[in-house]
Write a structure and sequence with these properties.
A hairpin with a 2-residue loop joins strand 11 and strand 12. It contains 17 helices and 16 strands. A four-stranded parallel beta sheet has the order 4-3-9-10, sandwiched between helices. Strands 5-6-7-8 form a four-stranded antiparallel beta sheet. It starts with a strand and ends in a 5-residue tail after the last helix. It has 495 residues and is of the alpha/beta class. Helix 10 packs across helix 12 and helix 14 runs antiparallel to helix 15. Helix content is 47%, strand content 15%. It binds zinc ion. Zinc ion (ZN) binds next to helix 7.
């Protein structure tokens, strides 16, 4: 397996330090809802982690939450709420989004505010070794003391200084020095430290947390390309100066950034699309396919057409996965597709090529099925590669047909739905009850209420379509039992 290492600037053979692959990926600063750019990064690292597990590596994955930061303090002040309350709200929102996108939770999600003792320990160690100095209640890292500084972004200090326009200050010995600990301003949250009341800088958090949860040397460090400098450069400087061990991370993996037209998607440009907004329009599988359909190191252009095409692609895969096996005949062998899929993923996680192979396999399954070959083994291959490695759910837009007569056939189709998808019996029973109620309304010509039920269900991701034989129900996403209960209550319907 080969992966591209930003540190060396080339593809390298993957050889982890030990039995367990240790991965650290920089997490969010929760001051607002996460956007599609975040989805891109975390879907990519989710797939990388899934693939390593698929290739039988044991993996430990740590991702931080920067729950104290200037942006959080500013936003909390605007809303007149405590920064901790704001951070909690958007951390919860972030976890909801990750869950909806089928991203496996990290093994540990350390929060900056929960790791202050470890952060202080690392800063003190850096001061003791002469790599850092306290000044005016803050502590700074002495960049010129580290001869390796710049090895990740491949730039010299003087280069960076002119490019970044480093800010000097009376406190700092050198304009390039960066803060490890920031003295608190009046009214800001603070923690006690040997240097006075203050809070940790952003860069030191990641060094302290990966040290604490993954040890002195890790295998893979990930993040967006916008984090290479200064964030990751600073993490290397801190971690390697503190432990004296190199490299801090063996492989540095960086994903390309999401573009909106010609611009980067960012809050300040006002072109943000949040994950929640995208999920209201597209299925989680479509969002994952949209992201994985280009190489992770390339920039990805946001486009509605791209998402719509991904949605169609999901349906193509679903049709192949769920069509009936004619059985009986000779079995269609999908092993060559599986091999090609692995080859693509082994080549620096080429998900676009791997996805292409799944689409070819889907077409081949359809052809084989039409020709009367047995396809269930090939379907299993397609399902397992899609689910296990690419994190697709294959459960969205699952159709359940309700007969107008509302008798046995309703039961039968819902049993099929629950056994093949993540739609629980509880959810199915509630949706079924709502569909029945709507059919009653239509019989009584109460169009307004019938329409209301359809609209409310659509808001929960369940669309109803009237067909000759009854109602087709499509799950774009699977609503929670609680949300359906409150809808039933709102409409005065008992289960
Ligand atoms: Zn970081």
């Amino acid at each position: 397996m080969k992966l591209y290492n930003t540190l060396s600037g080339k593809k390298e053979e993957f050889a982890p330090h030990g039995d367990e692959v240790k991965i650290y990926v920089c997490g969010v600063t929760p001051y607002d809802d996460a956007h599609i750019g975040h989805a891109m990064s975390y879907v990519i690292f989710d797939v990388i982690r899934r693939y390593l597990k698929f290739r039988d590596f044991k993996v430990k994955y740590v991702q931080n939450v920067t729950d104290i930061d200037d942006k959080i303090i500013d936003r909390a002040n605007q809303r007149d709420i405590p920064p901790a309350e704001l951070a909690k709200k958007y951390t919860d929102s972030y976890f909801e989004d990750m869950d909806a996108l089928n991203i496996e939770p990290a093994d540990v999600y350390p929060r900056a505010t929960g790791e202050i003792p470890k952060i202080i320990e690392v800063i003190q160690g850096l001061i003791d070794k002469g790599f850092a100095y306290p000044a005016g209640g803050s502590v700074y890292f002495r960049v010129r003391k580290d001869p390796d500084y710049g090895k990740l972004s491949h730039r010299s200090l003087d280069d960076m200084m002119s490019a970044e326009g480093a800010m000097g200050s009376e406190e700092k010995e050198d304009p390039m020095d960066f803060a490890l600990w920031k003295a608190s301003k009046p009214g800001e949250p603070f923690w006690e430290s040997p240097w006075g009341e203050g809070r940790p800088g952003w860069h030191i958090e990641c060094s302290a947390m990966s040290l604490k949860y993954l040890g002195e040397q890790i295998d893979i460090h990930g993040g967006g390309q916008d984090l290479i400098f200064p964030h990751h450069e600073n993490e290397i400087a801190q971690s390697e100066s503190f432990t004296g061990k190199k490299p801090f991370a063996k492989y540095w993996l960086h994903n390309g950034l999401l573009q909106f037209g010609e611009d980067k998607m960012s809050k300040s440009l006002g072109n943000l699309v949040t994950i929640k907004q995208a999920l209201a329009k597209y299925s989680p599988d479509a969002i994952r396919i949209f992201i994985l359909n280009s190489h992770y190191r390339s920039p990805l252009k946001y486009s509605e057409e791209g998402f719509e095409a991904a949605e169609k692609a999901v349906e193509r895969l679903l049709r192949a996965v769920s069509r009936d096996d004619p059985g009986g005949g000779e079995a269609f062998d999908a092993e060559s597709y599986r091999k090609q899929f692995i080859e693509a993923m082994d080549d620096d996680f080429n998900t676009a090529r791997a996805l292409g192979i799944l689409f070819e396999l889907a077409s081949a399954i359809n052809q084989a099925g039409d020709a009367g070959l047995s396809i269930s083994n090939a379907q299993r291959t397609l399902t397992s590669l899609g689910q296990e490695v690419l994190g697709l759910k294959f459960q969205t837009r699952f159709k359940v047909s309700y007969a107008t007569s509302r008798t046995v056939s309703t039961e039968a189709s819902h049993v099929a739905a629950t056994s093949r998808t993540a739609i629980t019996e509880e959810v199915a029973a509630r949706v079924k009850r709502l569909v029945e109620e709507r059919l009653n309304c239509r019989e009584e010509k109460n169009w307004q209420r019938a329409d209301e039920i359809r609209k409310k269900l659509a808001e929960l991701g369940v669309t109803l379509e009237d067909v000759k034989t009854g109602t087709d129900v499509t799950y774009k996403s699977v609503p929670s039992e609680e949300s359906l209960d409150s809808l039933l209550k709102e409409l005065g319907i008992t289960l």
